[in-house]
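Re: that chain you flagged

S.,

Sorry for the slow reply, it's been a week of failed gels. I finally had a moment to sit down with the sequence you sent. For the record, here it is as I used it:
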Amino acid sequence: MQYGNQSRQDLWDVYGTVRCKCEVEGVLPNVTVTLILPPNGSPLQDILVHPCVTSMDSSILTASSVDDCDGSAFSGPYKFPFSPPLESFTLCSYTSQVPVPPILGSYQLKEEENHLRVSVTLKLHESVKNSFEFCEAHLPFFNRDQIGVADVKVNSGQLDISKEKNLLVWSLGQRFPKSREVTMDGKISFNGPTPGPTDPLCTDLTAYIKLCFKVPDMTLSGCCVDQHSVQVYSSAKPRIVTSRELQSEEYFIWNSTGTAPVSSGDMML
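Prediction finished late last night. Pasting the structure tokens below so you have them in one place:
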């Protein structure tokens, strides 16, 4: 949740999951997977494990995001011994205290005569890999007539306008430009023949951008599976394949010239 307003503190939560699929021969095989962090990575917190995990260090399970960050939190390595089920399963989930969101955004929407002036800047943080599977910014407009004319320009990517849905979809493709910054600017009039979609929350200048993206081979926490320390107690030699991805779920940038909910719990989305 980014507000673009000095009187409102931006809020973000980072959630991670580790999913496994084990195809191991033998009766009740035992597997141990170890998660590691980079040297300055934030400790994992609020860890929940699958019932198949047979034992865990108590200091791992008691680390909570509500605890005081006094530097004494357990920072790994995190070992998970388990007897795997046959199907794919979530080995564990966790939270992480990441100091900055991956994409910083500014959104300004202003009334000007018979149209809205829209201005957007998105900047990819330097710590995030500039290689996306997809990246889109959705700009919906509620409680207005249907879009009539949209004279909007972007300096990168492709802009699609759905007049029926009163929606702008900005496809940024698989890379930000070398500057890591993209902009949108223009004006939109709402004089179409039919009313657009309604929403009880987004009235007047209360509006948002929703970002949807996926970055392969990366996590914000830096957490990854240590392939060399995976232990499989079975007669067959295992083939170990790991992958990582960073993906948005609820990622909103609010119009800084309008009102916005206090927290994500007030959004009713």
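What I noticed first: The two ends are 13 Å apart (CA to CA).

Talk soon,
D.
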